[in-house]
Structure prediction request, 95 residues.
Amino acid sequence: MNPTFKDITNSDDCTSDDGKRKRDDKEENVFIKSKKTYRSPEKKAMEKSDPNEELREMLRTLLMDNKNKANEMVELKEMMGSMIVEMKEIRKENN
Prediction:
């Protein structure tokens, strides 16, 4: 008895329940395993670097700026204090 085309296509080992061809696990991973081709070296270098490193660097910069601003505020307060003392002395001299 020779198998017909219909018999071959409907065999259980080749088709799934909905009549579509079964795929091996190897076939599904073809696109996942494909190597990415980069168009520019900057993009490649950027993707390889740690994405959190940029955020850490920004945070370090902000913290240093904050410290600098705090030091400036202390200096300004000291200057204002000395100016207030000078102004009081000048007022005493004028009165």
Notes: The CA atoms of residues 38 and 44 lie 6 Å apart. The chain has a mean pLDDT of 77. The chain has one domain: 5-94.
